[in-house]
Queue: 3 jobs
Job 1
Amino acid sequence: DTEVTQTPKHLVMGMTNKKSLKCEQHMGHRAMYWYKQKAKKPPELMFVYSYEKLSINESVPSRFSPECPNSSLLNLHLHALQPEDSALYLCASSQGFQETQYFGPGTRLLVL
Amino acid sequence: SQQGEEDPQALSIQEGENATMNCSYKTSINNLQWYRQNSGRGLVHLILIRSNEREKHSGRLRVTLDTSKKSSSLLITASRAADTASYFCATPRGGTGRRALTFGSGTRLQVQP
């Protein structure tokens, strides 16, 4: 099974809301990633988890809070977002950090 | 600055034609990868070429890597309408030992039926 799943597919939230994005993989991959992607732009790395520990935080604002409850799950908690945070949020996993990454379908987020 | 830059930014061809996309990068790498993204969807890995390889094939895809010029190209032969997508190259960040990939700016390919 080479699938990475993400929920929800779409999310609309107000600037005062709290919501969470979820990502799951069952490939036994040790690295998991969150990316943010704006239209017609490449994915921008937000966070990297290695063996369930945060390895890289790309100076992401604290209104984004990642969590890795176990080796298969990755969450991204959202609070007090801004309209400019509207984007496609992609989760990915890989066995090694420089090896093939497997992406989920993404969550399309709209902040009003 | 971005590790990978791609050209062209956009490419429109007819079905059956070949499409070539180029990627340039700045630092030494262990490998270079190519990904495809259909509109609004996740990325799909196409091919990985290691620094000691010069050319690699996968079906209708042909990837070349020139480490002396720090560049790579992706050739799609006999294109189909279903190949319409954005294509990104990706390289390890900051060189050979870093824990993430950096994606190039991407080429948007439109294949007209």
Job 2
Amino acid sequence: QKEVEQNSGPLSVPEGAIASLNCTYSDRGSQSFFWYRQYSGKSPELIMFIYSNGDKEDGRFTAQLNKASQYVSLLIRDSQPSDSATYLCAVNTVGNKLVFGAGTILRVKS
Amino acid sequence: NAGVTQTPKFQVLKTGQSMTLQCAQDMNHNSMYWYRQDPGMGLRLIYYSASEGTTDKGEVPNGYNVSRLNKREFSLRLESAAPSQTSVYFCASSEGGQDGYTFGSGTRLTVV
């Protein structure tokens, strides 16, 4: 079992819809979680950080964490074509090392 | 403010050749990392350096060596390149906490 699992997609949503991206992790001791966005041919950029159970909102982005279920999600409201990218879930492990999922490709259709 | 700078951006090597990927950060971060990214595999940690003077193996260290030259610089060396090392390599730095990692722009390496 991979440490961090994501559906590879592609996830296709129409412009203006809510995109829901999911991630599960295996290490029950993990405490902090990140979402990165990566455009094709570019490097990952941080968009969300969460460490407490529940929701964290930042603009159109909401991260949701459920440690009991070992589940992290990212919601993107009012999706725009510019949101089309690969979204990487990352889990912090011992020694401040991030373990990444393989990423979910999101396509927003105008 | 350059952040994390990687060189070169592109490289083609022949099997058996050696090369060094350079990485420098200007954010005064203690920790630096080398990852490789392959289609469908995500980012996999090769080596990391928690602080100046220390280095440790990550998930996929075979075929690589690293040097933490000083606090700013962390290099990755391929002693004898193999086609399996064809990948995109990312350097990153971090001070921990909610800021996560800052990534360099990547090196696209092809071994033929």
Job 3
Amino acid sequence: DQQVKQNSPSLSVQEGRISILNCDYTNSMFDYFLWYKKYPAEGPTFLISISSIKDKNEDGRFTVFLNKSAKHLSLHIVPSQPGDSAVYFCAASANAGNNRKLIWGLGTSLAVNP
Amino acid sequence: DAGITQSPRYKITETGRQVTLMCHQTWSHSYMFWYRQDLGHGLRLIYYSAAADITDKGEVPDGYVVSRSKTENFPLTLESATRSQTSVYFCASSDRSGPLAKNIQYFGAGTRLSVL
């Protein structure tokens, strides 16, 4: 049973447009959410995160929105650039127990076309 | 080099052989993790460690052994490799902080293992 779901395996957008990547979760104990970006033949790299006490976090072109009632978060990339083409993973954690484990979605492959 | 490094980057072995994948981090992070990535499964946790000499199973531990005698090293051993263990393996580390800590994990570049 997947606790973190990324229902779109792939997404294609035009350069300069907005990319919206979605993530749903089922465990109400999750209190911290992270987005990672992964290029081929490299490890995932941390992109942006949000605590459950917030509903928005922004870092440059990247904004993450959290809707706790819907158990849904989204990553907005504006404007999208060809270098953003990568696989994006959503991950969640529950700090209770303090084991630092992350629960991962399956990823969404983003292609930004020039 | 600072950061987290995995070796080897690529490995081909035969079924039944023992293989050890190495992971070394220079940050003195308390937590370390081993994942495997397969098509359709995303990242699956194999084992993790909260500190030296403390390890625990993840989601898919069968067929794997880990040890952590030093904080900076977390080797993963496949005792008798099987074809189903063909995968890309990632090591990650995370710092110990308070209850509202950002559980950011930092990843190595991965090891691509093929078991023939």
